[in-house]
Design goal:
Layout (H helix, E strand, L loop, with lengths): L1 H30 L10 E10 L3 E13 L2 E12 L6 E2 L10 E2 L4 E17 L8 E17 L1 E5 L10 E5 L10 E4 L10 E15 L6 E18 L8 E17 L1
Antiparallel strand pairs: 1-2, 1-13, 2-3, 3-6, 4-5, 6-7, 7-11, 8-9, 8-10, 11-12, 12-13
Length: about 260
């Protein structure tokens, strides 16, 4: 009997360091993002994207796991917006003239706060694999339209005296031959008007990071913005209430418990 008790105590005492080392090694693997079987319930990421409306954008997302392959995601993103008919010009009649877009009424910045879900279509089985996810979002679209100001050459009776005036672009008053260039960006900032609307988005993302607690991904998708009041972008083009754009995004982020 005493031999059995001694054997049990002996095994417990000398196996404890091994168990402790295994637990330590396991925790180290989790902290290093090397354990595939761990479910990180939280994640956040930052993205930079290009889009078909002729510009760039930035985005931030915060995700919460609903279950193993589905997350609820909050997002906010900002991008500039250009009309398809925008063409930059330079007046050839004046030296050192600056570029401008003839007919452009407003410069537009779009901000989209929204909520959606992200579903894992193909899970990553090992480090070299790519995880594929499908997402969809809805939310508000806030378009800030700042009126375009131009530097315009004022005609006088003296051909050697042509002063330059900074004026808000008026398609009935300003013609391409009289425009010296675009005024500084901040001119007219106080006259910015808000056009509220809504958006819907679908996206596919491809996560390729080698650490399971670090996000590195490429995302592509489509966005539709709808406005109750049409945006005045160009003087010589119909106003639009609906805009559809495509985008390509690079994403970086992290996951945690």
């Amino acid at each position: 009997m005493f031999k059995n008790i001694f054997l049990i105590v002996f095994l417990f005492v000398f196996s404890f360091p091994t168990i402790g080392q295994d637990l330590k090694d396991s925790q180290s693997r989790i902290d290093a993002g090397e354990d595939l079987k761990v479910l990180y319930r939280n994640e956040s990421n930052f993205g930079l994207f290009v889009h078909s409306a002729g510009g760039l954008g930035i985005a931030y997302r915060r995700g919460y796991h609903v279950h193993g392959t589905r997350k609820r995601v909050l997002e906010v993103e900002a991008q500039n917006f250009k009309h398809a008919k925008e063409i930059k010009s330079v007046n050839p009649y004046y030296d050192n003239a600056r570029g401008f877009v003839y007919g452009k009424l407003n410069s537009v910045l779009v901000i989209r706060p929204g909520v959606g879900f992200q579903n894992t279509l193909f899970e990553k089985q090992e480090k070299k694999n790519v995880e594929i996810r499908f997402s969809y979002f809805v939310g508000a679209t806030l378009a800030f339209a700042k009126p375009v100001y131009l530097e315009v050459v004022v005609k006088t009776n003296d051909p050697n005296l042509n002063p330059i005036s900074t004026e808000r672009y008026d398609p009935d008053k300003h013609f391409a031959s009289d425009i010296y260039g675009k005024a500084p960006f901040f001119k007219g900032l106080g006259q910015t008007r808000l056009y509220p609307g809504g958006y819907g988005k679908i996206a596919l993302s491809f996560e390729y990071g080698k650490r399971y607690n670090v996000i590195k991904a490429i995302e592509t998708g489509a966005v539709v913005d709808v406005y109750p009041v049409a945006l005045p972008l160009m003087a010589f083009a119909p106003k639009q209430r609906v805009f559809a754009t495509l985008y390509l995004k690079m994403v970086w982020g992290k996951k945690w418990f």
